[in-house]
Amino acid sequence: GFKKKKIEDGKQQIIVFDGNFHGRTISVISFSSSKKYKEGFGPLTPGFVSVEFGNIEAVKKAITPNTCGILVEPFQGEGGMRIPPKGFLKGLRELADENDLLLVCDEIQVGMGRTGKKFCFEHEGIVPDGVILGKALSGGLVPLSVFITSAFIMDMVFSKGSDGSTFGGYPLACVAGTAALKVFEEEKLAEQSAKKGKILKQRIEAIAKRSPHVKEVRGKGLFIGIEVKDGNAMEFCRKLFKLGLIVNDSHGHTIRISPPLVINEEEMDFLVEQLEKVLVG
Predict the structure, then answer these.
(1) For residue 32, is it within any domain?
(2) Is 21 among the residues known to form the active site?
(3) What's the alpha-carbon Rg for the chain, to the nearest Å?
(4) Cα–Cα distance measured from residue 159 to residue 4, given in angstroms and rounded to the nearest whole number
(5) Mean pLDDT, the chain, integer
(6) Can 97 be counted among the known catalytic residues?
(7) Beta strand 223-228 with 248-250: parallel, antiparallel or unpaired?
(8) Sign of the CA dihedral with 89 first, then 93, 95, and 96 last
(9) Active-site residue among 11, 90, 135, 195?
(10) What is the total count of domains within the chain?
(11) pLDDT, tens only, 86-104
(12) Are 180 and 52 contained in the same domain?
C-alpha cells in the first residue's frame, strides 16, 4: 500500500474476516475475533478491518482508498470448519483486481492437499497474489513456512540484504521441505486426500443420520468438521482420545477431523468405529 499505491504511511488498511486464525504473532492477534488471544498483549497493531466471512457485499463496503489488501483463509479451520459460499473467492479476486488490492490466501491449514487439491483456492479456479504455507510443508519434521508470490511483487516489496529473519532460509528446514514436496508429488497426496476424503465424509454422514448429537457434517478432502448440537465438541474429543483418537474441537461446537493424508483403509475403519461409539453409542 505504501510502496505502490502511495497510501500515507500509517493509514494503510487490510481487510480480514471474522472468525479468522492466522497465528499468534502480535499483528495477527490484533485482528483476531477471539478475546483470549488479545488480552494482555497490548498495544495492538491497527490497520485491519474485519468483516463477515463469506459475505462479498460486506467486503465491497469495507474497501476505501486506504485499502491495500485482503487476507483470507479459503476454508476457516479454527473458525469453526467454515466453508465460504460458492463464488466467494472468485468475488474477492474480482474486487482485488478492480481496486488494485493484493489478495493473499493463508493456506497453512488447508493447503498441501488437505482439502483434496494442492491448494484450497483451486476449488474456485482463482490465483491469489500471495500464498502462505507452513506446517505440512516440511512434513511436520521441522518448523518451515513460506510466502509465495510473483517476482514482480517480491521485487517491489522486498529488498535483498535488508528484509530477512534470523532463521530465514534455514538449510535443514529447506531440505526437509524439499523432501516433503517430493513425497507429496510422487505419492499424489492431494489426489489421495480427495478420494479418501469423499469416502470418509460419506461414512461420517451416515453416522450423523443416526446420531442424536450431530447438527451438520461439512468439509473437503481430509478436512472434515462435525458440528454438534449442544456446542460441547470438546466432550466428544476427550472421549475419542480415550479410545485412541487425537482430535480437536473448533470454536467449541465442531469436532475437527484432520487425519494424515497417508491414512490407510484399516486406520479409516478404526476412526469411523470410534466416531460411531461416541456419537451413536
Answers:
(1) yes
(2) yes
(3) 20
(4) 14
(5) 94
(6) no
(7) unpaired
(8) positive
(9) 135
(10) 2
(11) 999 999 999 999 999 999 9
(12) yes
